[in-house]
Amino acid sequence: MIILLALFIMKKRVYCNCEICQTYINSSWKIQFDNFCDWYTHLLKKSTTRTIHIHVLGNTITANPDNVEYMLKTRFDNFPKGKNFSAILADFLGRGIFNVDGDLWRFQRKITSLELGRASVKKCAFEVVNHEIDQRLLPLLASVAGKEDEILDMQDVFKRFSFDSICRVSFGLDPKCLDLSLPITKFAAAFDLASKLSAERAMTASPLLWKVKRLFNVGSERKLQRAIKIINMLAQEVIKQRRKFRFSEEKDLLSRFMGTISDEKYLRDIVISFLLAGRDTVASALTSFFWLMSKHPEVEAGILVEADRVIGQNKELTSYKKLKELHYLHAAVYESMRLYPPIQFDSKFCLEDDHLPDGTFVKKGTRVTYHPYAMGRMEEIWGPDCMEFKPERWLKNDGLFFQENPFKYPVFQAGVRICLGKEMALVELKSVALSLLRRFRIELAQPQPTPSFSPGLTSTFRGGVPVLVRPRKAPS
């Protein structure tokens, strides 16, 4: 009876006669586009306001910077994550910072902001990242460099690297996923599956469909619950180990939360949120960056020339200060994320009836999504060369990096919910990029004209990024 009711609701919601909904229903986007985000970009470009409404999903989607500023700053309180969206991710993220509003969000944000702002934490993060690079990442690549039969999946390597790094910085624990033996962890597969299936919930036309499947524990919902069970085991072990050493060493973020929270389930949600932020987004950004480097040797050369000038030829990067002087590298990282943001779109829910700055009426309860991936492809924002990879667009005439309006570039969100780990992530991205480019040439093992993405909460290359590693003269 419940299943029949769900199908009835689905039928009532799907049959809309507008052109956009008919396109969606017929799945014709698959004929023209490899990626769902490219289909959205196509529709947004056709809209004069750069805003569309997908009736079948009850979703208003925008690539208009004025609308983004309105949602994330001007009328922030009227566009929270919302109960509907929180319910979609509740099994995976629970009450973690990315899935809550109000007091729970403010509490987690306050502690995280205080900790990440401390000089000692920044120093620790810089040291951890560079230790992971020197002791694990570089030896791994060196072990396969120059071997034609040795292919590495760089996406997998970066996920392992970022997982080790975030665990050490946030939890004071070392999972050693990037050892030369590349130990396979059940957690990594479970985390990826949970992210994929949770994202698919958001694409379901009627929430009742996945709720019914969860009630009867069938299909994708059964797989999701199995994955979450594995994730919970890891989170519990992290908390258990941290309790053992907490009073002797309180340099990590989790210890600070444990000082005020006794609820194990709540701590579990915080652990998973840290992992999502520190593992998946950084790995996604690094994967896209090196995919672009393989296709733009002129940018790679520019980064190396700048590094020799600022750091010194055949000299190592030893300070955070020198890293900040690498403006072209910084611009290349930003440009990479303009075209391939780790979070391709982000959704809020409208609390009360509202009008966006472009005149779009938003009804109470409507899901409203801003789309960084599409925004990076809008000519009125980035010019007629918006599809080109050009780090120079971020540099002033004196060669210094120029920060664009964050509402044109909401890769780190913007306004009140701007990413607290932004600076730490940029340090990690630039440190890895610099260290690998100065020692190796990384070439795609298979032709890949454009990336194809798998469903998930973060951008993931379908099939990974298989590469061959060529040695370059290492700094002495």
From TrEMBL:
Compartments, record wording: Membrane
Gene Ontology terms: cellular component: membrane
GO MF: heme binding; iron ion binding; monooxygenase activity; oxidoreductase activity, acting on paired donors, with incorporation or reduction of molecular oxygen
Binding site for heme: 419
Signal sequence extent: 1-16
Family that this chain belongs to: Belongs to the cytochrome P450 family.
Protein name from the UniProt record: Cytochrome P450 94C1-like
Organism: Olea europaea subsp. europaea
